[in-house]
Amino acid sequence: MGSRAQREAWLHAVLHTGNPGDVAFYRRVCAGARRVLEIGCGGGRVLLALARAGHEVTGVELHRGLLARLRRALRDEEPAVRARVRLVAGDAARIDLDERFERVLAPYNMLYCLLDDDALHAVLRRAERHLAPGGRFVFDVYCPARIDPGEAARLEGLAGEPHHVVSFEADGAFVDVFESDTWDPRRQRIDATYHYAIRRGDRVERAVQTIPQRYLYPEQLERALEAAGLVLVERHGDFDGAPFDPDEGLFVGVAARRDDTR
Ligand SMILES: C[S@@+](CC[C@H](N)C(=O)[O-])C[C@H]1O[C@@H](n2cnc3c(N)ncnc32)[C@H](O)[C@@H]1O
Fold first, then answer.
1. What is the pLDDT along the chain (262 residues), one digit of tens a residue?
2. Residues 131 and 176 in one domain
3. Looking at the structure, do residues 244 and 122 belong to the same domain, yes or no?
4. What is the position in ligand 1's atom list of the atom closest to the CA of 91?
5. Total structural domains in the chain?
6. Within a domain: 6
7. Is 102 found in the same domain as 231?
8. Which residues contact 106 (CB under 8 A, 6 or more apart)?
9. Which of 139, 148, 150, 215 is at a distance of 20 to 30 A from 27, taking alpha carbons?
10. Whose CA is nearest to atom 13 of ligand 1?
């Protein structure tokens, strides 16, 4: 039933449908910008919408299955849209592109894919360095629940029972996906493990994939932005400008290079 990278790309496309209103938000926030860089562009949900709206977009993505899927999706786009898309395979912590961008985007919890402070700092530094003068770095993440240290110790490493999350059909196979999560509140880490049952006729193939995530409290993320030379200029609780609440909802942030705010 295809490669592991292909299976992971299927799952990503089925599960990563974004938050309501996020694509419209990123379109609004990019209004007037010619060049846009998206770090961790995944299957191109946001990237393609921006290219269709007339922006020149560059997407950086680490996962080769997702990039392959995005390249295939591009074939169905108008030639003019295709011509506005540049895809870069690799780690956003190491990019050194030959252009600067009016917007650099990290949508849909991308920053939580960075599992330690060094990786987070490296990506934010690269984002800052790729901003054109006056440009903006824009991201969204969820605000995690706060729990007291005793409760954190109790929950450490506790694995939930697998539960059914989604079923889908792709390339003639019927795929049932179950998820079990391990939550380590002291390390701020959630490891989501997906168990697949892939049916083709009478044959059932099984596969397992773990997607790790390190979440951040808003004050930690703000400190990381500052350390990378970025200053938060806007902060919202959703994509329609709701007031920010550090204890729930989303952290939708817009940051500028420190040099631009002096
Ligand atoms: C949560 S998904 C968001 C995808 C996309 N931005 C969207 O809104 O649908 C995060 C993406 O970042 C990619 N990613 C994680 N770490 C990365 C890194 N260091 N460099 C480039 N891409 C990365 C993942 O493979 C994944 O596709």
1. 467 777 777 777 777 789 999 999 999 999 999 999 999 999 999 999 999 999 999 999 999 989 998 999 999 999 999 999 999 999 999 999 999 999 999 999 999 999 999 999 999 999 999 999 999 999 999 999 887 777 777 776 666 788 898 898 887 889 999 999 888 888 899 999 999 899 999 999 998 989 999 999 999 999 999 999 999 999 999 999 999 999 999 999 999 999 888 7
2. no
3. yes
4. 20
5. 2
6. no
7. yes
8. 38, 39, 40, 123, 127, 137, 138, 139
9. 215
10. 40
